[in-house]
Amino acid sequence: MLAAITRMRLARPMLTPRTITRTTTIITMVITKAMTITMITATHTTIIATTSIAVTTTITAIPMLMKTNKQDPEQGSDAPRTADMSESEAAALYRLMTWLSPSFPVGAFSYSSGIEWAVEAGDITDAASLQHWLSSMLSDGAGLCDGIFLAQTHRAALSDDNALLADIAELASAFVTSRERHLETTAQGRAFIEIARAAWNSEPFDRLIAACEATIVYPVAVGLVSAAHGVPLAPTVHAFLHAVTSNWISAGARLVPLGQTDSQRLLAQLEPAVAATARRALAASLDDLGSATFRADLASMRHETQYTRLFRS
């Protein structure tokens, strides 16, 4: 626009006052009209943008409001839903966390499952070698076998198959590879049953124990108790393997030794192995039982004659 004015001035160097006045009026009208159009366009754009934002916000908020205001039918139409866990599920979780907590007095802290001999022999010297040892025990040794025994016991108990329960209990007791390992699993099994019976006794529990007709090892005891109280199988197997692994790490931490942070890192690193072993145990049958951790079995046997010991196995 300024360029146009300049050209006009160059083209007509001698202008009269009247001409200048008319020219100024025209230029003012053009500028005013242009500013008006710009303001209208900007206002229109703002309205469109604001409307778009409002629509988007409304569309986004609707499902959020539907989720937030979801009602609990048991508490009435006006009460907001505050929990997705039923009373029976909460009770099962509470008991499972209690039974497989390090504070549950089964004496697990006094057993190392042969780890003490492995440390003395130099097989385990640091966190990395302990992780490798425990991963093998989980995937190819006692971890997998105990998980299978627990799962099969739980299923036999729910189906009221007393003959199968007796067979599983007998096989699990005979499956351990050393005298100290047998002491470890039977002592913990006996303590687990006695404490669970004292605090959470039930009629099905006593009947299932009587059906076993043999010494009850630790994984069989956990399977019996969890089935008697309606605790689901899958979380029971996962929690059991987590508890066993935690106890192994605790023994290794005292023997290597390891710090608390390294112990927690090790537990985190073994999470995939625990989860994979649990899945295998849940999908397996008694025909899938088997162990390939020969060095761990030898460690458990040689611990029986180890001169200096902190642990019972």
What is the N-to-C order of secondary-structure elements (H for helix, E for strand)?
HHHHHHHHHHHHHH
Structural class: mainly alpha
Unreliable segments of 5+ consecutive residues: 1-17, 23-28, 30-77
Oligomeric state as shown: single chain
Percent of residues in helices comes to over 70%
CATH topology of the largest domain: Urease accessory protein UreF
Name of the CATH first level of the largest domain: Mainly Alpha
Instruction: Report the total helices.
Output: 14
Q: Give me the CATH superfamily of the largest domain.
A: Urease accessory protein UreF
In the CATH hierarchy, what is the architecture of the largest domain at level 2? Answer: Orthogonal Bundle
Gap between N and C termini: 97 Å
Structure characterization notes:
With 313 residues, the protein is mainly alpha-helical. The chain folds into two domains: 2-68, no CATH class; 88-305, Urease accessory protein UreF. Helices cover 72% and strands 0% of the residues. The chain has helices spanning 2-11, 17-68, 87-99, 115-121, 127-140, 142-158, 162-174, 179-200, 203-212, 218-228, 233-255, 260-269, 271-283, 294-302. Helix 6 crosses helix 13 and helix 8 runs parallel beside helix 10. It is globular, with a radius of gyration of 38 Å. The chain starts with a helix and ends in an 11-residue tail after the last helix. The model is unreliable at 1-17, 23-28 and 30-77 (pLDDT under 50).
